[in-house]
C-alpha cells in the first residue's frame, strides 16, 4: 500500500546495491511524469553490499500546488520512485539490482523530531481517522464552531482514501463514511459578532478550520519613501523661480498592510495542538467579509511565538494571535 | 509602484518581496575608454520557492541528472510592470541552504552585449569555415592575376604587394639573371619575353581578405541553427555597410607563418591517378608460367585462379616509387586502392620508397594515386609494380618468375595547391579581433529589441540619442550629490601592438615614437593624475615604401607607382608579427616583373594592388587613414604638395571629440541620485542627454534599483 509521505520532512528512499555495482539511479516520477533522474556513482572497491539513500521530499514537494480548496479535499501528489543499480558508472552497463518501484502519496505534512525519520500521515494513528489533531486523553475528536456554522472535515481511510465529511450548521457531532465520530462543540460568540474563521493547512497536510470567538481588531499600517526634490524652474525672460505649492519633499511608493488581531475565546487544553499547527503552517487564510460578501483572503501568522497554556496554570485557555494580510492593501499585483 | 518580473526561458521567477535589484548601465566609461561595457545587475537573491526550485532543478543536489547547468548562462528577460525591458542572460552563482534545504538562489543578470563573448568563446578566426568560400588556388597564374585585380566573381580577395622575405628594388639601369637565392629582387622589367632577367618570384606574395568577409563568416557560423545560444547578427551601421569605405575597404593579410606559404599537409593538393604503366619486364621463368596479372591504363589486376598449381604464398606483389632526384627531396603522398577500398596510404614519402613490400594481394584491380605540394616527376621506370609467383607445371616442375610493370613516360603530380583561408589566416581569437576593431574605430555595441548587435562609432551613437536634454530636476534627490574630477589619466596613448616590421621599427628608433601612434595630453602636462591610459590595437602596422627607380632619368625623380610592404624584422629576417590590416589600392603605371622561379614563366605588369595606410593615394579623394597620428603619407611624401594632408586619422575622427572633452578644464564627473518614474526610465537610453537645471550632461553610467526607480547617475557635463 502506498505510504502517505510528509513532504515537509526528509523522505529517504534506498536501495541495497550488491557487490560489483558501480552506480545507482533513482528515477522520481511525480503525478505520472518523470521529473528527476538522480545518479550516484559508487566506489570501485565496493565488494560488499552498500545501501544508497536518496531524499525525494524536496523534489516532490515542489509539485504540490497548495491553493484554498472549498471542498477541503487534501492536495497531494502521486510519487513513484524507481531505484536500480548498474555495474558501470553513470547508470551505464547492465542492471544488477532492481527492486520494485515504490509508490507513495505526498502530503504538505510534517512530523516532529520525536516522530522520527520518514514520517507518514497520520503519524502512527490507525486509519480510518480524521486528519485533525485528536484529544489524546480521550482518544476522541472534538472541534469547536460557533452556532449556526457548517463545515467540512477531511479524513483518511484504507478503504476509501481521502474523504471529506460535511457537517451542518446545527450538528453537534459528525460521523464519517468509515464510522469515525467527531464531536462538534458549539460556541455562542454573538457578543463579539460571528467569530472569525481561520483556515490553515495543518500538520496532516489537510485544510482545517480554527475559530476565534472573541473580539477582533483590524489595523492598517502605511509605509512610503521620500526624497528631496529640486523644484526650481527657469522661465524664459525672468529669474529662476519655484512654486510654493510644489513640495520639495516628495513622497512615493506609498503602501499599506492590514493586520487582524484575533482572540480565540476559551479552549480546552487539548486544543493547544491546533494553535501549534496554525503557527507552523505555511498556508493560512482568513474568512472575512468585504463589501457585504464573504471572502477568503490569504494571511500570514504574524505572531511568532505562543506560550502554551495549561488549565493548571492558566485556568482558562485563550490565545490572542495577530494575522497580517498576505498582500499589499493597494493592489499592485503584476 | 514598480514591479520587476524576471523570466528564465518562459518561466517567471519568484522574487523576494524586498530584494533590491540594481541594474548598472554604461556603454562608454571615461574611466576605461577603450572598453565596451554591458549592463548587468549586482548579484541578487531569489527564494528557493517551488517555482524557482523547478527552474534551477535543485541545483545543490548534484546527483540530479540533466539538471540546471550553471556552467552556461541561461536566456532571461526582465520586464517592468509587465512591459518588456531587457533581454539577456542569467548566471547562477550559488545556492544558500538552510537546514540542508535550499533557501536562496543567487543570480546575476547580464545584458545581451556580453553574449558576444559567451558565444564566441576562445574560437579563432581559423574556425570560421565560411572563409574558405574565398579560398583560391595558390599558383603563379592566380597570384599574378590577383595582384592586378579581384578574382572572377570574388571581390573579397586581393594580392597586395607585400613580400614576406625579399626586398624589392627598381633599377632601370641594371639587369641580371634571376637568382632564386637572392633576397633582393630588382623588379625592373628588363627586355621582353622569356629573358630570365630581374623580377620577383610570385611566392613572395600572399592573398589578403576583406575584413567584411570575416564579419560575414562570423554571422554565418554563430547561429541558433548551428547549435549556438543565439544568432550573432551585426547591424549595418558600421559593419555590413558597403558605403562605409573606411571599414569595407579594409583587408587582412593572410600571413599565418613567417616566410613562404605552407600547408599543414598536402590535403589541399589534388591526387593524380597513375594511368600509364606501359613497360612490362618479365623475370625468371615467367615466359613458361600461367599469367595471374594484367596491366591496363595503369591499373594492375590480380586474377589468381585457385585451380592452378601456384604456391600457397603466390603472388608476392611490391610497389616501388622512385621520383626524380631533387635537393631537398620533395615529399609526396601515395594512395593505393584495391578491391576492398584503400589498401595502403603513405603520407610524406620521400625519395625511393617501397610502398608495398612483397605482399600477397587478393584478386582485384589496384590503382595508384600520388600527390605533392609542388610538382613532382617520376621518370620512366620510377613507378613500378613487381608481381612474383611460383607455379608447378604439369610435370610437377617448379617455376619461379614474375613481371614488372613500370611507367614508360614521365609521370607528374598535378601539384595544385589550394590556399585555404582558414589555414592561412593569422592566429587570433575572434573576440580579440572584434575587440581590436572596436578599439580601432572606437565602436560601441548594444543589442536591440530584435537581437541585432547594433555597432556604431561612439560619435554616431551619441548623435543618435536624444538631442533635446531630458530634464530630471523634479526627480532629483538633492540631499546629497558629488562632483568628481573627470580626468583620470595624465595621458592617453594610442598605438598598434605590432610595430616590428623593418621600417616601422626604424621609424620608432629615429623618431622615438611608434609609427602611427598618438600620445594625447591636450598639449599640456598635468601632474594631478598619475596614470597613463593605453589604447593598443592587436594588429600590425607597417610603414610601406614607395619604390624609387635607383637610376632615374632626367625627366623624373625616379618615383614609380609601385608601393610595397617589406614584411621583415630589423634583422631583415622573415617576420611573423600581428595580423596586418591595410587598404589595398589598385594602382596603374610603372611596369614591374613577376616570375615563376620553377618555370620560365614571367610577366610584366603595370597594374597592382599596393598596400596603403590611407584609403586613397590623394587626400583630395579621401583623407581617411588608419594611423592614430597624422604621419607623412608613404606614397605622396616624394611628391610635391602636402604629404600630411591625410588628416582623418583614427584619433581625429573617432576619439578626439570624446577625449578632448575629457581633458577640458571644465569637465566634471557629477554623481547624483534621482527617483525616475517609469515614463522616464523606461525609454531612457545611455546616449540621451540629461538636463539638470540649465546644464546638459552625457551619461557616463547609471545604476538603477529596478523596484524603486532610484537611479545613481554618473554624468559628464557637456562642453560647448
Number of E-state strands of chain A: 21
Query: What class, by secondary structure content of chain B?
Result: mainly beta
- Mean pLDDT across the residues of chain A is 91
Give the overall shape of chain B, derived from the CA principal axes.
flat
Task: Measure the end-to-end span of chain A.
Answer: 44 Å
The first-to-last residue Cα distance of chain B is 38 Å
Low-pLDDT sequence parts of chain B: none
Structural write-up:
The complex is a heterodimer of chains A (334) and B (720). Chain A is mostly beta strands and 334 residues long. Chain A has helices spanning 57-61, 272-279, 311-314; strands at residues 3-6, 12-17, 23-30, 33-41, 50-55, 76-86, 95-97, 102-107, 129-130, 141-146, 151-157, 161-167, 173-175, 181-187, 196-201, 207-212, 216-228, 249-263, 284-290, 293-301, 320-325. Chain A is built from 3 helices and 21 strands. In chain A, the strands form 5 sheets. In chain A, strands 16-15-19-20-21-18-17 form a 7-stranded antiparallel β-sheet, covered by helices on one side. In chain A, strands 1, 3, 4, 6, 7 and 8 form a 6-stranded mixed β-sheet that branches. In chain A, a hairpin with a 2-residue loop joins β3 and β4. Chain B has 720 residues and is mostly beta strands. In chain B, 12% of the residues lie in helices and 37% in strands. Chain B contains 11 helices and 45 strands. In chain B, the strands form 11 sheets. In chain B, strands 3, 4, 33, 34, 42, 43, 44 and 45 form an 8-stranded mixed β-sheet that branches. Chain B has a 6-stranded antiparallel β-sheet with strand order 2-1-6-7-8-5, covered by helices on one side. In chain B, strands 10, 14, 15, 16, 40 and 41 form a 6-stranded mixed β-sheet that branches. The mean pLDDT of chain B is 88. The interface between A and B is medium-sized, with 33 and 32 residues.
Amino acid at each position: 500500500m502506498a505510504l502517505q509521505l510528509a513532504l515537509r520532512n526528509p523522505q529517504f528512499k534506498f536501495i541495497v546495491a550488491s557487490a560489483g555495482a558501480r552506480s545507482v539511479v533513482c528515477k522520481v516520477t511525480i503525478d505520472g511524469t518523470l521529473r528527476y533522474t538522480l545518479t550516484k556513482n559508487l566506489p570501485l572497491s565496493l565488494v560488499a553490499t552498500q545501501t544508497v539513500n536518496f531524499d525525494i521530499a524536496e523534489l516532490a514537494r515542489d509539485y504540490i500546488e497548495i491553493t484554498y480548496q472549498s471542498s477541503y479535499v487534501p492536495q497531494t501528489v502521486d510519487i513513484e520512485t524507481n531505484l536500480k543499480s548498474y555495474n558501470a558508472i553513470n547508470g551505464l552497463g547492465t542492471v544488477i539490482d532492481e527492486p520494485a518501484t515504490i509508490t507513495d502519496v505526498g502530503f504538505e505534512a510534517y512530523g516532529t523530531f520525536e516522530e522520527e525519520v520518514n514520517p507518514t500521515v497520520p503519524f502512527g494513528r490507525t486509519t480510518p481517522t480524521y486528519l485533525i489533531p485528536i484529544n489524546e486523553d480521550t482518544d476522541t475528536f472534538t472541534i469547536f464552531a460557533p452556532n449556526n456554522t457548517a463545515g467540512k472535515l477531511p479524513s483518511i481511510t484504507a478503504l476509501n482514501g481521502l474523504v471529506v465529511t460535511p457537517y451542518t450548521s446545527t450538528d453537534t457531532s459528525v460521523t464519517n463514511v468509515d464510522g469515525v465520530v467527531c464531536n462538534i462543540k458549539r460556541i455562542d460568540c454573538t457578543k463579539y459578532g460571528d467569530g472569525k474563521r481561520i483556515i490553515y493547512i495543518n500538520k496532516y497536510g489537510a485544510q482545517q478550520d480554527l475559530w476565534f470567538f472573541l473580539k477582533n481588531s483590524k489595523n492598517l499600517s502605511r509605509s512610503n519613501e521620500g526624497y528631496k526634490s529640486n523644484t526650481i524652474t527657469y522661465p524664459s525672460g525672468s529669474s529662476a523661480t519655484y512654486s510654493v505649492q510644489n513640495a520639495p519633499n516628495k513622497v512615493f511608493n506609498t503602501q499599506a498592510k492590514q493586520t487582524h488581531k484575533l482572540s480565540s475565546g476559551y479552549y480546552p487544553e487539548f486544543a493547544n495542538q491546533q494553535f501549534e499547527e496554525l503557527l507552523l503552517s505555511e498556508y493560512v487564510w482568513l474568512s472575512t467579509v468585504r463589501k457585504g460578501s464573504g471572502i477568503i483572503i490569504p494571511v500570514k501568522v504574524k505572531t511568532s511565538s505562543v506560550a502554551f497554556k495549561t488549565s493548571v496554570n492558566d485556568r482558562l485557555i485563550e490565545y490572542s494571535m495577530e494575522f497580517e494580510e498576505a498582500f499589499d492593501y493597494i493592489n499592485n499585483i503584476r | 509602484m514598480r514591479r520587476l518580473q524576471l523570466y528564465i526561458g518562459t518561466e517567471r521567477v519568484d522574487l523576494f518581496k524586498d530584494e533590491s535589484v540594481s541594474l548598472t548601465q554604461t556603454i562608454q566609461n571615461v574611466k576605461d575608454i577603450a572598453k565596451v561595457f554591458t549592463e548587468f545587475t549586482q548579484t541578487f537573491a531569489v527564494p528557493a520557492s517551488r517555482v524557482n526550485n523547478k527552474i534551477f532543478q535543485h541545483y545543490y543536489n548534484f546527483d540530479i541528472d540533466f539538471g540546471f547547468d550553471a556552467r552556461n548562462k541561461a536566456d532571461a528577460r526582465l520586464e517592468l510592470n509587465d512591459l518588456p525591458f531587457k533581454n539577456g542572460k542569467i548566471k547562477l552563482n550559488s545556492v544558500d541552504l538552510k537546514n540542508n534545504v535550499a533557501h536562496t538562489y543567487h543570480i546575476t543578470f547580464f545584458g545581451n552585449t556580453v553574449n558576444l563573448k559567451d558565444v564566441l568563446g576562445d574560437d579563432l578566426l581559423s574556425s570560421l569555415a565560411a572563409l574558405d568560400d574565398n579560398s583560391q588556388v595558390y599558383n603563379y597564374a592566380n597570384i599574378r592575376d590577383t595582384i592586378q585585380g579581384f578574382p572572377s566573381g570574388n571581390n573579397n580577395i586581393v594580392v597586395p604587394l607585400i613580400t614576406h622575405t625579399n626586398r624589392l628594388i627598381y633599377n632601370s639601369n641594371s639587369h641580371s639573371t634571376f637568382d632564386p637565392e637572392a633576397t633582393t629582387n630588382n623588379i625592373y622589367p628588363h627586355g621582353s619575353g622569356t629573358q630570365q632577367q630581374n623580377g620577383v618570384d610570385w611566392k613572395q606574395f600572399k592573398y589578403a581578405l576583406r575584413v567584411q568577409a570575416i564579419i560575414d563568416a562570423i554571422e554565418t557560423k554563430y547561429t541558433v541553427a548551428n547549435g549556438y545560444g543565439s544568432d550573432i547578427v551585426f547591424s549595418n551601421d558600421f559593419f555590413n555597410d558597403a558605403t562605409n569605405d573606411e571599414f569595407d575597404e579594409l583587408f587582412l593579410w593572410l600571413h599565418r607563418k613567417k616566410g613562404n606559404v605552407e600547408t599543414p599537409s598536402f590535403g589541399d593538393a589534388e591526387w593524380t591517378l597513375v594511368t600509364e604503366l606501359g613497360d612490362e619486364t618479365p623475370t625468371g621463368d615467367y615466359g613458361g608460367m600461367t599469367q595471374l596479372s594484367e596491366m591496363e591504363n595503369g591499373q594492375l589486376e590480380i586474377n589468381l585462379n585457385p585451380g592452378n598449381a601456384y604456391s600457397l604464398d603466390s603472388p608476392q606483389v611490391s610497389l616501388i616509387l622512385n621520383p626524380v632526384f631533387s635537393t631537398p627531396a620533395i615529399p609526396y603522398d601515395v594512395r593505393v586502392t584495391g578491391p576492398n577500398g584503400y589498401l595502403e596510404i603513405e603520407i610524406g614519402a620521400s625519395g625511393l620508397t617501397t610502398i608495398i613490400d612483397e605482399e600477397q594481394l587478393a584478386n582485384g584491380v589496384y590503382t595508384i594515386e600520388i600527390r605533392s605540394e609542388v610538382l613532382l616527376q617520376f621518370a620512366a621506370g620510377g613507378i613500378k609494380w613487381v608481381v612474383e609467383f611460383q607455379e608447378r607445371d604439369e610435370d610437377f616442375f617448379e617455376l619461379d618468375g614474375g613481371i614488372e610493370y613500370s611507367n614508360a613516360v614521365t609521370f607528374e603530380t598535378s601539384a595544385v595547391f589550394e590556399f585555404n583561408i582558414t589555414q592561412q589566416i593569422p592566429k587570433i581569437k575572434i573576440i580579440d579581433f572584434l575587440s581590436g576593431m572596436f578599439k580601432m574605430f572606437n565602436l560601441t555595441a548594444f543589442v536591440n529589441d530584435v537581437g541585432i548587435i547594433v555597432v556604431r562609432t561612439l560619435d554616431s551613437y551619441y548623435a543618435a540619442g536624444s538631442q533635446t536634454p531630458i530634464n530630471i530636476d523634479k526627480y532629483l534627490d538633492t540631499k546629497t550629490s558629488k562632483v568628481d574630477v573627470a580626468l583620470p589619466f595624465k595621458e592617453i596613448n594610442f598605438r598598434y601592438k605590432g610595430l616590428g616590421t623593418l621600417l616601422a621599427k626604424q621609424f620608432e628608433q629615429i623618431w622615438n615614437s611608434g609609427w602611427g601612434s598618438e600620445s594625447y595630453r591636450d598639449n599640456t602636462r598635468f601632474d594631478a593624475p598619475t596614470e597613463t591610459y593605453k589604447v593598443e590595437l592587436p594588429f600590425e602596422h607597417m610603414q610601406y615604401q614607395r619604390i624609387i627607380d635607383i637610376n632615374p632619368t632626367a625627366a623624373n625623380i625616379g618615383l614609380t607607382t609601385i608601393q610595397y610592404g617589406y614584411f621583415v624584422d630589423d634583422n631583415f629576417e622573415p617576420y611573423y608579427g600581428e595580423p596586418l590590416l591595410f587598404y589595398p589600392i589598385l594602382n596603374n603605371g610603372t611596369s614591374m616583373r613577376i616570375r615563376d622561379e620553377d618555370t620560365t614563366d614571367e610577366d610584366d605588369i603595370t597594374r597592382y594592388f599596393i598596400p596603403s595606410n590611407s584609403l586613397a593615394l590623394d587626400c583630395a579623394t579621401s583623407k581617411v587613414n588608419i594611423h592614430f597620428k597624422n604621419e607623412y603619407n608613404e606614397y605622396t611624401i616624394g611628391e610635391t604638395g602636402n604629404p600630411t594632408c591625410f588628416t582623418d586619422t583614427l584619433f581625429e575622427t573617432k576619439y578626439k571629440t570624446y577625449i578632448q572633452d575629457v581633458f577640458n578644464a571644465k569637465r566634471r564627473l557629477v554623481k547624483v541620485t534621482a527617483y525616475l518614474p517609469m515614463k522616464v526610465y523606461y525609454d531612457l537610453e545611455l546616449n540621451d542627454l540629461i538636463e539638470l537645471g540649465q546644464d546638459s550632461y552625457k551619461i557616463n553610467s547609471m545604476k538603477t534599483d529596478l523596484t524603486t526607480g532610484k537611479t545613481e547617475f554618473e554624468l559628464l557635463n557637456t562642453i560647448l
